[in-house]
Write a structure and sequence with these properties.
alpha+beta, disordered C terminus, five-stranded mixed beta sheet, 15 helices, disordered N terminus, 22% helix
Length: 789
């Protein structure tokens, strides 16, 4: 008993907890594609490689080529999938950032974005801009004066430290502190004393503007002192600081000079009238002070530009609506709703906009107020509707006094298939109840003055019916071996020949003598409680669409014609024979039951260099996916295994490779760069096991190898497994051309280990020990028999 328990525990130490059942073949894990992969694999490349792997661009010379190409497709598909997934994540991230940016922009006070980078251009000099008349001249500004005509003159002058320019003959002209417009008048007057300007033209341009230092402080993103060209207005200079903060004012921006407030900038005033006159130009060492906002109000609903606006002390709802671009088309212009916090309570107040707009009512707004312009949700009015069998159905304008026929004429009359016996007018009353009025279209159209041509009311709806709605649609149909199977509307004059002709005639494979007509023999246009009976009639027809000697057969409603196919008619079905046969190539099957040996015989037999053990047979489904058909061609041709003489199908590919004496090793071995996709070749030695090849040529098992799952795969598709007896393993014997595959262990995730089933483990161990014991007893018996002999 102690020996048995010791044996069980000893065997347990060699067993894997998660063994795979022996009737399943594990496949090696594919290595993951690096996240650093670059370049997207095109659909064309994937399709080409897939076709190559499936043999669509030419049968591979060996199964090795097929596997390698298939593996390449898997790698490229994995790489393409990873890159597409990354692109999807990046696109999603970008959309999220754009959405957040848009939402944030909605919360900004109107006017802040005016100073964002790029919205205002900052000029480095005046060389590429014309100075406006309100530009203030100062020391360092350079003027270009040109005269042409009876008098000619050209000169460039810089305003000096004394604030003047000095021109020969003309003398000193003081310009400092003047606007450019005033300076041009003084220069023209002074030069006119020396030159004949009555018969000449004069041009005065700012050639170069001075550089000034401006101090920007307060609620800006980057406060500081900046050196800029004086040709920039105060608004341009503010843009240099990176724009305003979220709490900055846009209505009370102060410019100070020599510690005195000389200008208050109002962005809204500038945006409403963006003319040069509203620009303000700075001088050296000016200060721009951006204060926090004091009164920001939100307007939402039906205005053209909802959002947050800054209001001055005496501004109210009227100015707020103007800043928001005015009412939208859906706005109710007579009422608005004011939301205001008083203490910790939110209160609502209705506002009469008529009085506000007409300045009869003044409503002051406070910081944090919200004004909502309500949408007009009134239903559409002033219309009538006509539907059904009219030429232009739809809604039309209602006009008092118009009648039913007037509306039909607006719809360009009734259609050719109109049912004139009855139509309906649906009338909706004030209490939303419906009234249905029957119309006689025959009477209304023939006699417009008839009292049945009722006057219309607002919201009336006329429905005109088609004759098709009151009759069953009858069809006849033809199927089978015709060029275009069709279904057409029934006509009393249609014959079998007519329907065959409409279907493009018979195909080559049509069985002319087996044309069947499926018919409801007791079909009647009148209602009947009698069950329907289907009869079948068989007729013969020639390719010239002639029905024997009998008269043409007329069709009845719901007849179905079946044109059968000749049983023995079929097009050539080809298979592909490649490799070591005397005449490889494409072969047409001579019968539905032709087998492998027949085709090889027609190809002149195999050559002396053929490697029969490595022959492969591939079969393809409708999707183009290939399947390996297990084949032992050597045993078949030696007439030992006739079961491998398969009946061939169209598209089959039989490849007989050239003789070779190599063995392939792949999977979890220590040989450098060998894994589940790459392999190493070793020389074939008769009678050696898979373990011998792994140790002698593969560098031995790697630490990730699952030795008990090692298997051999022959080129013909056979698989031989390792027999695991717990204490020891019996590895399969390798034949020439075989592939030795070492499976990787499954990677276990921490915390997800499978609980040990001790009962199953003990039972499996006892079964394996029993097998070992039986094997040992058999060996002893063989030895004893040998000794007796």
């Amino acid at each position: 008993m102690k020996f048995i328990l010791f044996t069980i525990l000893f065997s347990f130490s060699f067993l894997s907890y998660g063994q795979v059942p022996t009737d399943n073949i594990s496949t090696p894990n594919n290595p993951s594609v690096s996240d650093g992969a670059t370049g997207v694999v095109s659909e064309t490349d994937l399709a080409r490689l897939k076709e190559q792997a499936q043999g669509q661009l030419g049968a591979p010379n060996s199964k090795k080529a097929f596997v390698q190409e298939g593996a390449e497709v898997e790698k490229l598909v994995a790489q393409d999938s990873i890159i597409k997934e990354k692109k999807k994540l990046l696109d999603g991230k970008q959309k999220k950032e754009d959405s957040l940016r848009i939402e944030k922009e909605k919360l900004r006070t109107y006017g802040h974005s005016f100073f964002d980078n790029g919205n205002l251009k900052v000029f480095q000099s005046a060389g590429h801009i014309k100075a406006p008349d309100n530009y203030i001249l100062g020391v360092g500004d350079e003027l270009n004066i040109t005269i042409w005509g009876n008098s000619e003159y050209q000169g460039v002058y810089t305003i000096n430290s004394s604030g003047s320019i000095e021109a020969k003959i003309v003398g000193r002209v003081y310009l400092r502190g003047m606007s450019f417009g005033e300076a041009k008048k003084i220069i023209s007057s002074r030069f006119g004393r020396v030159y004949d300007l009555k018969n000449s033209e004069i041009s005065i341009e700012l050639n170069y503007s001075k550089v000034i230092r401006v101090n920007i402080v307060g609620e800006v993103k980057n406060p500081g002192t900046y050196s800029v060209s004086s040709i920039n207005s105060a608004f341009n200079v503010l843009a240099i600081s990176g724009g305003l903060t979220d709490i900055a004012t846009v209505r009370n921006i102060i410019v100070k000079r020599n510690n005195n407030k000389i200008k208050v900038l109002d962005v809204y005033k500038f945006l409403q009238n963006p003319s040069p006159e509203n620009d303000f130009y700075l001088e050296d060492n000016d200060y721009i002070l951006v204060n926090p906002t004091e009164n920001t109000v939100n307007i939402k609903g039906e205005v053209k530009r909802p959002g947050y606006y800054e209001l001055k002390e005496k501004e109210g709802i009227k100015e707020l609506i103007q800043y928001a671009g005015g009412f939208s088309k859906k706005a109710i212009k007579t009422k608005a709703r004011l939301e205001r916090y008083i203490g910790d309570k939110l209160v609502f107040k209705d506002i009469d906009l008529d009085s506000v707009i007409k300045e009869k009512l003044i409503v002051s707004l406070k910081d944090g107020d919200s004004v909502q312009i309500i949408q007009n949700t009134s239903a559409l009015r002033n219309f009538v509707v006509v539907k059904g069998a009219v030429n232009v159905p739809g809604s039309y304008e209602f006009k008092e006094g118009e009648k039913v026929l007037d509306l039909l004429n607006k719809a360009y009359g009734v259609r050719y298939d109109t049912y004139f016996g009855r139509a309906y007018l649906t009338r909706t009353h004030v209490d939303n109840t419906k009234e249905y009025i029957t119309l006689n279209l025959n009477e209304i159209i023939k006699n417009p003055g008839s009292p049945l041509n009722y006057p219309l009311k607002e919201f009336d709806e006329i429905v005109v019916y088609s004759q098709k709605g009151f009759s069953d649609t009858l069809f006849v149909e033809i199927k089978g071996a015709v060029r275009r199977p069709i279904r057409v509307a029934y006509s009393e004059d249609l014959t079998v020949q007519d329907l065959v002709f409409m279907a493009g005639g018979l195909k080559r494979e049509a069985a002319n003598g087996r044309i069947e007509i499926s018919r409801i023999s007791n079909f009647s246009k009148e209602d009947s409680d009698e069950p329907t009976r289907v009869t079948i009639e068989t007729v013969a027809i020639s390719n010239e669409l002639e029905l024997g000697k009998e008269a043409p057969i007329k069709l009845q409603p719901h007849d179905i014609i079946f044109v059968r196919t000749t049983p023995d008619y079929h097009m050539q079905k080809n298979i592909f024979l490649t490799g070591e046969v005397k005449y490889p190539g494409t072969y047409s099957l001579i019968s539905k039951t032709e087998k492998i040996t027949s085709v090889i015989e027609r190809a002149g037999g195999v050559t002396e260099w053929s490697f029969l053990e490595g022959a492969t047979l591939l079969r393809f489904n409708e999707k183009g996916d290939s399947t390996i058909v297990i084949l032992d061609l050597k045993a078949l041709l030696n007439k030992k295994r006739k079961e491998f003489d398969y009946v061939l199908q169209e598209g089959d590919k039989l490849d007989i490779p050239t003789v070779r004496n190599l063995v392939t090793i792949m999977g979890a071995v220590k040989y450098p760069k060998v894994d589940s996709l790459n392999s190493v070749y070793a020389p074939f030695v008769t009678g050696r096991s898979a373990r011998h090849y792994i140790k002698a040529y593969g560098g031995g098992f790697s630490s990730e190898a699952k030795r008990s799952s090692t298997y051999i795969e022959s080129a013909g598709g056979f698989v031989k497994r390792t027999k695991d007896f717990g204490l020891f393993k019996i590895y399969p014997i390798v034949n020439v051309g075989d592939k030795v595959v070492v499976i990787y262990k499954e990677k276990k995730i921490k915390g997800q280990e499978t609980p040990i089933d001790w009962n199953a483990l003990i039972s499996r161990t006892l079964t394996q020990l029993t097998g070992v014991t039986s094997l040992a007893m058999s060996t002893i018996a063989v030895v004893k028999l040998t000794q007796i002999k």
